[in-house]
UniProtKB/TrEMBL annotation:
A GO-annotated cellular component: condensed nuclear chromosome
Protein name: Homologous-pairing protein 2 winged helix domain-containing protein
Keywords: Coiled coil, DNA recombination, Meiosis, Nucleus
GO aspect biological process, one term: homologous chromosome pairing at meiosis
InterPro entries: Hop2_WH_dom, WH-like_DNA-bd_sf
Chain segments annotated as coiled-coil in the UniProt record: 69-103
Amino acid sequence: MIGMGQQNRPLNVQMVADALQKNGIKKTAVQKVMDTLAANGKISFKDYGKQRVCMADQTQFEIPDIDELDAMKKQNDQLLADVAAVRSRVSELESGLKSAETNLTLDAVVKKTKELGSEVETMETKVQALREGSVLVTPEERLEVQAAYDLKLGVWRKRKKIYHELWGMITESMTENLKDLKVINSKSTNSHWTVASVPELLCFCCRTF
């Protein structure tokens, strides 16, 4: 009854039951209470088709005159202005907080400065070594890199040869579009091929034929 008086708007039994559901009150109990309030003249029911709504007794409310309404309107306008000012201040504080969070603290600035200074010294040492003609890569390291490169190049050439041999045998009597069997990845102006593995190629051919 207190909630209906505070809101002072039409309600039905279901709306009241939904509001009180969190307290474990069922719709049947709500209906009984509302019927009792209606019998005591606290609320009144009115039917709108199949919908039945109830309202609090309007005689309990004081109806303000024009002067009171004007005063209430001015008070409402002032409250809205106060709310707008508070929201604006909150927005400024949030903006300042985000800015403070993104800025480094003094300790973080000192630490970062030391790290960058160390990196600069390291790079200057390398630059100075290059200017003096120092050898940064030893002959042993160069031979090691060359051996690894030659090994991978040899493996690639063997795979390429196997692919071309299989490709020639498979496509010799094919009538389908050969593009469906190719796996080509053109990444540069040079001829760069990504070749399917032999098991993948044979499985595809079995499905094709």
